[in-house]
From TrEMBL:
<dbReference type="GO" id="GO:0051537">
    <property type="term" value="F:2 iron, 2 sulfur cluster binding"/>
</dbReference>
<dbReference type="InterPro" id="IPR012675">
    <property type="entry name" value="Beta-grasp_dom_sf"/>
</dbReference>
<dbReference type="Pfam" id="PF00111">
    <property type="entry name" value="Fer2"/>
</dbReference>
<feature type="domain" description="2Fe-2S ferredoxin-type">
    <location>
        <begin position="4"/>
        <end position="114"/>
    </location>
</feature>
<keyword id="KW-0249">Electron transport</keyword>
<dbReference type="InterPro" id="IPR006058">
    <property type="entry name" value="2Fe2S_fd_BS"/>
</dbReference>
<keyword id="KW-0001">2Fe-2S</keyword>
<keyword id="KW-0408">Iron</keyword>
<keyword id="KW-0813">Transport</keyword>
<keyword id="KW-0479">Metal-binding</keyword>
<dbReference type="InterPro" id="IPR036010">
    <property type="entry name" value="2Fe-2S_ferredoxin-like_sf"/>
</dbReference>
<keyword id="KW-0411">Iron-sulfur</keyword>
<dbReference type="GO" id="GO:0046872">
    <property type="term" value="F:metal ion binding"/>
</dbReference>
<dbReference type="InterPro" id="IPR001041">
    <property type="entry name" value="2Fe-2S_ferredoxin-type"/>
</dbReference>
<protein>
    <submittedName>
        <fullName>Ferredoxin</fullName>
    </submittedName>
</protein>
<comment type="similarity">
    <text>Belongs to the 2Fe2S plant-type ferredoxin family.</text>
</comment>
């Protein structure tokens, strides 16, 4: 099966790329590769693993304007309901990497600043 390249962008400018089969989550693959992506509940009810999609690679690249939100649904499907995020947050690119499975190559910003942007989950 096809896998997708998911590049994680850390606040210090470092990047980690993982090839993720759509049958696996980004978190599962990242941990297997030794990438210390934070996680807690692993079922979409806290925001510990949240990232923000900043770019999606498409066949015909249509680069978003700087700071223009990218809908996370362009890059990810979910195995179960991402209860910790609102629909508006998902449309702004926020994605729960513990339950997200990729549908496109993409770049995702991760780290404490991203988590601070969405705040704590009411389910967490
Ligand atoms: S680890 Fe809790 S939502 Fe992902």
């Amino acid at each position: 099966m096809t896998s997708y390249d998911v590049t994680l962008e850390w606040p210090d400018g470092r990047t980690d790329s993982v090839a993720v089969d759509p049958r696996e989550t980004v978190l599962d693959v990242a941990l297997r590769e030794g990438i210390r992506l934070p996680a807690d509940c692993r079922k979409g009810t806290c925001t510990t693993c949240v990232g923000r999609v900043v770019a999606v690679e498409e066949d015909a690249p249509d680069e978003p304007e700087a700071n223009e939100p990218v809908d996370a649904a362009e890059a990810f499907d979910y195995r179960r309901q991402p209860r910790a995020l609102t629909a508006a947050e998902r449309a702004d690119g926020y994605v729960l990497l513990c339950i997200a499975v990729p549908r496109a190559d993409c770049r995702v910003a991760v780290g404490p600043m991203i988590r601070a942007e969405v705040g704590d989950s009411p389910w967490g």
